[in-house]
Backbone:
């Protein structure tokens, strides 16, 4: 059946509104609400979002972090992002554990890059990594994960080498 231009526009408009309504989250939260069977997912990256805590001398600090596990997810990381909430971040899970080296290619916002050892303790921190800088920022040992937070957040919270990270 061939649609007239008017019918085509009406059909397109109806399909668009239906698709828009189906995609709407109905709220302003950065993450979808998890259900019993589905984890939270970040609205921009589509990555799972999990709770993460860092126990430092100044107390326990809670974050909601996106989880990057695949090579492709880790290669993109927080590139092109223009904002990150104070208690948001991204965890790069290294399976198997390995030394890690990061750069800030196409990364718009300054970041603290926190290298986490196999004992889940902070090995070292590349603080306030400069946006777009392609100089390598490396771990001081083998990592089970790397946590990225807003630049300066680790110092603000007193996060240091030896602090315990759980996710």
Residues:
């Amino acid at each position: 059946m061939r649609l007239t231009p008017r019918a085509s526009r009406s059909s397109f408009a109806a399909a668009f509104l239906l698709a828009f309504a189906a995609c709407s989250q109905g709220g302003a939260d950065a993450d979808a609400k998890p259900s019993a069977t589905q984890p939270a997912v970040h609205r921009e990256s589509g990555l799972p979002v999990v709770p993460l805590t860092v126990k430092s001398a100044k107390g326990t600090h809670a974050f909601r972090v996106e989880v990057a596990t695949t090579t492709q997810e880790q290669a993109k990381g927080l590139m092109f992002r223009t904002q990150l909430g104070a208690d948001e971040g991204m965890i790069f899970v290294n399976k198997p554990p390995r030394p890690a080296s990061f750069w800030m290619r196409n990364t718009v916002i300054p970041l603290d890059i926190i290298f986490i050892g196999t004992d889940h303790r902070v090995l070292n921190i590349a603080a306030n990594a400069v946006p777009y800088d392609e100089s390598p920022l490396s771990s001081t040992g083998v990592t089970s994960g790397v946590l990225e937070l807003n630049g300066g957040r680790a110092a603000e919270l007193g996060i240091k080498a030896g602090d315990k990270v759980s996710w």
Confidence is low (pLDDT under 50) at residues 1-32.
